[in-house]
Design a protein that fits this description.
Structural class: alpha/beta
Helix content: 25-40%
Number of strands: 9
CATH superfamily of one domain: Zn peptidases
Shape: globular
Order of helices and strands: HHHEEEEEHEHHEEEHH
Bound molecules: zinc ion
Length: 327
């Protein structure tokens, strides 16, 4: 299960960084796994689809869990019903803090497309189904559990560990991370930040590799509009505005710009062969990616893509619905 994998990786990383993992009793992982699943499902059952977001309920839940274990929390709100939560475990101050960041809102959802209700957090086999299960309540849960375990196990830290549960990541950052960075930087100022991104790939139910993401693409929205002659639809009009707009949408979708590799993506494309598995990740293929080549596969952010989408409510500008109709 992805959240479990993440919490294990995160905890091991923190413990090793501290250099004293062996002197501490081993965590009871089956018990922790059950607790992780409980929090994960509880978080998924809050409908925080953005907009309107409704992150208040999640923050109240996290506050109750954290304060019950003696971890203080602070709230920072640009809009009262969309708070951000910050919790901090104090370290010795020998190093600058580590920030664990995860967002509590989700994109919108069309329940008709779902086998299980999107806010049911249904456990079916080894999988939990729900809106936000991989974006980003898994990271909220992993960060929460990291905080709880570090506190419970009384792990001595050489740096503060900060947990930011941010609101509004899905297109409303004025209430979330932008607000925190602009107005409350001191609360989240850190040397490193672990946030969403990367992935654990599986084949036949087994994890084959875990990737680390270092950057996000930046959204650059363009509104397409067309004009043409108005007239009765019984008479075909040259330069019909609807037809012209449809052609423009098709052109955006077919656009295949050149791949541009940054420092991370070129190192990954080049160096995976020397990794232990030596197996090409499924989204990279057998050969290194050539800068300037073209592809429609969104290879870990190396390719810019045109992505037509719908702005009609309830879907936000960052979401492409499954059905669209032009009447
Ligand atoms: Zn996300």
């Amino acid at each position: 299960m992805a959240p479990m994998l993440r919490i294990v990786c995160l905890f091991v990383l923190l413990a090793i960084a501290n250099g004293s993992a062996q002197s501490r009793p081993a965590p009871d992982w089956p018990v922790i796994e059950a607790e992780t699943l409980k929090h994960f499902q509880a978080l998924l059952r809050f409908d925080t689809s953005d907009s309107p977001g409704r992150e208040r309920e999640v923050v109240d839940y996290l506050t109750q869990v954290l304060t019950a274990e003696g971890i203080e929390v602070q709230e920072y709100s640009n809009e009262a019903h969309r708070p951000n939560l910050v919790a901090r475990l104090k370290g010795s101050g020998a190093r600058r803090p580590l920030l664990l960041m995860a967002h509590t809102d989700t994109v919108n959802v069309d329940p008709k497309k779902w086998t299980f209700p999107p806010f049911s957090a249904t456990l079916d086999g080894d999988y939990v189904y729900g809106r936000g299960a991989v974006d980003d309540e898994d990271n909220v849960t992993a960060s929460l559990m990291a905080m709880l375990l570090l506190k419970r196990l009384n792990v001595p830290l050489d740096r503060d560990v900060i947990f930011l549960a941010e609101s509004g990541e899905e297109g409303s950052t004025h209430v979330g991370v932008k607000f925190m960075a602009d107005e409350h930087w001191d609360a989240i100022n850190a040397e490193y930040c672990f946030a969403e991104g990367g992935n654990v790939m599986r084949e036949g139910g087994r994890a084959t590799y875990a990737s680390v993401q270092t950057l996000e693409k930046i959204l650059f929205g363009i509104e397409l509009a067309a004009t043409g002659p108005a007239g009765h639809s019984s008479i075909p009009l040259e330069n019909n505005a609807v037809a012209r707009l449809a052609k423009a949408v098709a052109a955006v979708s077919a656009w295949q710009p050149e791949i541009r590799l940054n420092e991370t993506t070129s190192a990954f494309s080049r160096d995976w062969r020397t990794s232990r598995s030596r197996r090409p990740p499924p989204d990279i293929g057998p050969s290194p990616i050539q800068p300037g080549s073209r592809t429609q596969t969104p290879i870990f952010g190396a390719s810019n893509l045109g992505s037509p989408r719908c702005c009609a409510p309830p879907f936000r500008r960052i979401w492409c619905p499954a059905d669209i109709a032009l009447t």
